[in-house]
Amino acid sequence: KAGVTQTPRYLIKTRGQQVTLSCSPISGHRSVSWYQQTPGQGLQFLFEYFSETQRNKGNFPGRFSGRQFSNSRSEMNVSTLELGDSALYLCASSPQGLAGETQYFGPGTRLLVL
Amino acid sequence: KQEVTQIPAALSVPEGENLVLNCSFTDSAIYNLQWFRQDPGKGLTSLLLIQSSQREQTSGRLNASLDKSSGRSTLYIAASQPGDSATYLCAVIKSGYSTLTFGKGTMLLVSP
């Protein structure tokens, strides 16, 4: 079974631009979560999608948004990029997004904002 | 608000040593705890998941224990190898859905 894939792997943007990142979960997994990883803050939860609905949201500004498609693939969008948005963005999938399930992570998208 | 702390932040050991990584959390009302490994610039690999009703889980040379009442978990690595060099992260799930709250990790270096 293929693992979680994320595209693109690397991205360079300038302040003020917007960016869209993509995540394809493991086949059969319906829950996709997004995390931001920075050296200072570590890994922080952004949001979780299940069956095309945002089910849970972390403490990030409205510039961060996402969506999920009927095939469970998910995208996250960051508008009006700031230097502090430079980070590794990771997505994770699980079958139902329930607490007892193992989360499987993708390799991440490294975003650099100049 | 749940806070997860990992000690030490970094650890360097010679090959063959047994070692213990520590994880503590402030809110003992967790559903489960998961240990991950992260190689430089890469995503996370799940190592062990311990349900709140369990005391420990084992996988090969890895053993993770959980003491909910004291808010602590340990990851024991037996007979360490250079290939074990990575950052080890613990994460807790409070209840219901699968949102993970992570510690900042322990960076492990095993030298030959």
Secondary structure elements and pairings:
The complex is a heterodimer of chains A (114) and B (112).
Chain A: E1 5-7, E2 10-13, E3 19-24, E4 31-38, E5 42-50, E6 53-57, E7 64-68, E8 74-78, E9 87-94, E10 104-105, E11 109-113
Chain B: E1 4-7, E2 10-14, E3 19-25, E4 32-38, E5 44-51, E6 56-59, E7 62-67, E8 72-77, E9 86-93, E10 101-102, E11 106-111
Parallel strand pairs in B: 2-11
Antiparallel strand pairs in B: 1-3, 3-8, 4-5, 4-9, 6-7, 7-8, 9-10, 9-11
Q: Count the beta strands of chain B.
A: 11
Distance, first to last CA of chain B: 41 Å
By secondary-structure content and strand pairing, the structural class of chain A works out as: mainly beta
Low-confidence stretches of chain B: none
Largest interface: A-B, 30 and 27 residues
Strand content of chain B: over 45%
Reading the helices and strands of chain A in chain order gives EEEEEEEEEEE
* Broad structural category of chain B: mainly beta
Tell how many strands the DSSP assignment of chain A holds: 11
Q: Any idea what the shape of chain B is? A: globular
